[in-house]
Amino acid sequence: MPALYPSLIAANQLSLGPTLDALDAYADGYHLDIMDNHFVPNSTWGHGMINAIATHTKRQLWVHLMVDNPGIWVEQLQLPQESSVTFHIESTTDPLRIIHALQKKDCYASVALKPGTSLDTIIPLLPQLDQVLIMSVEPGFSGQHFIQNSMDRIATILQHKNAHNLALRIGIDGGVTSKNIVNLANAGIQDFAVGNALFKAKDIAEALQQLQILLNPSTSLGRAITEKP
Asked: Whole-model pTM?
């Protein structure tokens, strides 16, 4: 089933607690962008903030490490079991070590593909992974437009997944809106990080509900919202 993860980098940073409270009923989890101002030209939260978010919500956390030396972060983050952690293939010389470290912590291991990164760099890792994240914008800043050739990359990963009967999920991050989310789901995307399309809305909880309806119209949530008088 498709899953929606509000991307908290796009939220009001002064009110993350109330934001989590407002969205918990409708979010499948939360996408947390960690940037170190080295791997990408921007910086966000440190370990303390991520660990604090982990104590405030029971929803799954999807931590996206856009950092150098991601193995250090994996060691220091105190994440609930079944959290998902994404790192970039360019950020390490030993991706299998990080994958195994995550799975030893009972976390899901995910690798991200930047728009300019060859798919060939991760194909050998696919049997070891729980998720592949397709970056449909350049990593580092929210609010960018969706890069259309991401659809070709999704198709290639999906083809390889099906050909080898792999259980990994396919995620997307960047430029997801109400206008393209259904097409992305039909193309094979299962995990959606959603930023400005949600947090630029006047009512973020209602906006998230509407995205859930688009993705899951036959679920109890979708039926409850669409049948609401």
From this structure: 0.91
